[in-house]
Amino acid sequence: MAGRLEGKVAVVTGAAAGIGAATATAFVREGAQVVVVDRDGEGAERVAAQLGPRTVAVRADVSHEQDVVAMLDAAERAFGRLDILHSNAAAAHPADLDVASTPDAAWDLAYRVTLLGAVFGARHAVPRLVAAGGGVILHTASAQAFIGDHARVAYGAAKAGVVALTRSLATTHGRAGIRCNAICPGLVVSDAARALFPPPLLDAVVRHQALDQVCEPDDVAALAVFLCSAESRCITGQAIVIDGGLSAVGSASADLAELIGYATWVPPATTDR
Ligand SMILES: NC(=O)c1ccc[n+]([C@@H]2O[C@H](COP(=O)([O-])OP(=O)(O)OC[C@H]3O[C@@H](n4cnc5c(N)ncnc54)[C@H](O)[C@@H]3O)[C@@H](O)[C@H]2O)c1
Fold it and tell me: Tell me, what DSSP letter sits at residue 87?
């Protein structure tokens, strides 16, 4: 049986690790040819080598417009066309906390990588997708575009900008056959996230989710495949949250359930997630 992305050519940024690596892997499994892009060139080479001959690796920093042009050129040079751009790369600055203390450097990083990186991708992908008769732009935004937190003010603001960009692109280019959606993860336990969220913190997040399970990069990759395949041909301009129901549950719900005595509703803390 043909894969769901058979014959498609995709570029995935931030693909040396985490969600991007899982998405590149799922795209290849579904029949796509994939350009594995990361600012970590060795990491991109490693992932591409694991995935085999239907991939090429490109070292690119998405905050540099000429790198973005080069990664899209690489797709056309290696595979003859472009059908899918998954703008997934982002990085959070360690000093990105509250608005009073967050330095300009953190705002600059959020703006340049998260928002401008997606803008550069769209700017240079749209003409190529139009030439190919249509295609898909997929963004990795964040649930933090919609819910408040005590930290990462710049990151959340930039991700909200990515959601707005998503809707704008879907509106402007839909009639040219281009769909654009944003995946908005809550906590996804990539290696990077696992290092930042040791078990007590992970349990605190899961305690406030509807589902008693953590989201893995492969869960996001499965959504990415769906949103880049013809199965989602009527879906565009959407910001789709994948967070185990964290943003659906009332914020006081877990505490109230404990206080009122719905103790079985709240899963016990575990350390082996
Ligand atoms: N993991 C989570 O809990 C979570 C939650 C919400 C949103 N997200 C988003 O998902 C995406 C992937 O996150 P992840 O958890 O897989 O992270 P990760 O750190 O595991 O992987 C990110 C990859 O992006 C690359 N990268 C960073 N800056 C880059 C740049 N300027 N140019 C090119 N590559 C760059 C890194 O080298 C790395 O390989 C990001 O957009 C992130 O904001 C993640």
Answer: E
Residues 6+ apart with CB under 8 A from 200: 269
Are 28 and 12 contacting, i.e. CB atoms less than 8 angstroms apart?
A: no
Residues 6+ apart with CB under 8 A from 189: 197, 202, 214, 215, 216, 217, 273
What tokens appear for 210 in the block? 């509807």
Q: How far does residue 41's CA lie from ligand 1's centre (Å)?
A: 14
Å from CA of 137 to ligand 1 middle:
17
pLDDT mean over 100-115: 97
Point out the catalytic residue in the list 93, 155, 219, 221: 155
Q: In the 8-state DSSP scheme, what is residue 215?
A: B
CA–CA gap between residue 63 and residue 182 (Å, rounded):
19
Q: Give the largest Cα separation in the chain, rounded.
A: 63
Q: pLDDT (tens digit, 9 = 90+) per residue, 165-201?
A: 999 999 999 999 999 999 999 999 999 888 888 888 9
Ordered structural domains, the chain, with CATH? 9-196+214-249 (3.40.50.720)
Strand pairing partners for 38?
59
Task: Return d(Cα 160, Cα 144) in angstroms, integer.
Answer: 8
Residue 181, number of CB atoms within 10 A of its CB: 27
Q: In the chain, which ranges are continuous DSSP H helix?
A: 18-29, 41-51, 65-79, 104-109, 116-131, 153-173, 191-196, 199-207, 217-228, 253-260
Phi-psi region of 137 (alpha: psi -120 to 50; beta: other; left: phi over 0): beta
Which helix H or strand E contains 9, and what residues bound it?
strand 9-13
- Protein residue with least CA distance to atom 22, ligand 1: 14
Q: Nearest-CA neighbor of 38 among 22, 20, 26?
A: 20
pTM: 0.95
